[in-house]
């Protein structure tokens, strides 16, 4: 069994800047649980908190070479977590606003010859179908059938972290695709003069 060396925060940062996966693993093990609970208090959803937690550590890994911590590492991670939550809420508000505008346009359509516009559920189903097969299966099992990440891990013979990775990537893809389709529909409606 391989033991992981316990590093101080300053050592962790230096090793992380140099791309150490061991340092990243220790960083995650040390701070993820506390940060998860902070995120959960902010978003009130275990699934969203877990996805945002992964976003925090993805951001840390991607920006590892330029990390500059002025205070404690824990406070730095908390600040990144808060910023990611605020970004999440801003994006959700924009999506709700855009969807409300689209619904308003759809309600105003009175011409029987007007092309039908897919509802939200149809958009979601089409976007899910476009996911890669395993990601689609993982997303359906976790999000639509309500199975836990652990259950899906055992069922499909993949690690819990792989399940989580699929959920994070599927969610981002779905948000992007659905938002893009809603914008396209709204633009088409505006361009064709539907008010």
Give me the secondary-structure topology:
Elements: H1 9-17, H2 21-43, H3 46-62, H4 73-108, H5 120-129, H6 133-144, H7 149-156, H8 160-191
In short:
Helix content is 75%, strand content 0%. It has helices at 9-17, 21-43, 46-62, 73-108, 120-129, 133-144, 149-156, 160-191.
What is the overall number of helices?
Answer: 8
Shape: globular
* Residue runs with pLDDT of under 50 for 5 or more positions: 109-118
Question: What sequence of helices (H) and strands (E) makes up the elements?
Answer: HHHHHHHH
Rg on CA atoms, Å:
21 Å
How much helix is in the residues?
over 70%
The total tally of domains equals: 2
What class, by secondary structure content?
Answer: mainly alpha
| Total beta strand runs | 0
Question: Major beta sheet, specifics?
Answer: none
Kindly report the name of the CATH homologous superfamily of the largest domain: RNA polymerase sigma factor, region 2, helix turn helix motif
Question: What separation lies between the terminal Cα atoms?
Answer: 67 Å
Mean pLDDT: 80
CATH top level class name of the largest domain = Mainly Alpha
The CATH architecture assignment of the largest domain turns out to be Orthogonal Bundle
Oligomer: single chain
- CATH fold-type name of the largest domain: Rna Polymerase Sigma Factor, Chain: A
Strand content: under 5%
């Amino acid at each position: 069994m391989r033991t992981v060396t316990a590093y101080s925060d300053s050592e962790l940062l230096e090793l992380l800047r140099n791309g150490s996966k061991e340092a990243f693993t220790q960083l995650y093990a040390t701070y993820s649980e506390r940060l998860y609970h902070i995120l959960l208090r902010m978003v009130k959803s275990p699934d969203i908190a877990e996805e945002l937690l992964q976003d925090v550590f993805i951001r840390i890994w991607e920006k590892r070479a330029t990390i500059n911590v002025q205070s404690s590492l824990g406070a730095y991670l908390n600040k990144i977590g808060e910023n990611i939550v605020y970004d999440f809420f801003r994006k959700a508000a924009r999506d709700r606003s855009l969807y409300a505008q689209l619904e308003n346009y759809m309600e105003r359509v009175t011409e029987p010859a007007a092309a039908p516009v897919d509802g939200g559920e149809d958009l979601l189903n089409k976007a899910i179908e476009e996911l890669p097969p395993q990601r689609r299966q993982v997303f359906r099992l976790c999000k639509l059938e309500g199975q836990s990440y652990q259950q899906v891990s055992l069922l499909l013979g993949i690690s819990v972290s792989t399940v989580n990775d699929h959920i994070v990537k599927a969610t981002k893809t779905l948000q992007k695709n659905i938002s893009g389709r809603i914008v396209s529909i709204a633009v088409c409606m505006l361009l064709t003069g539907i008010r």
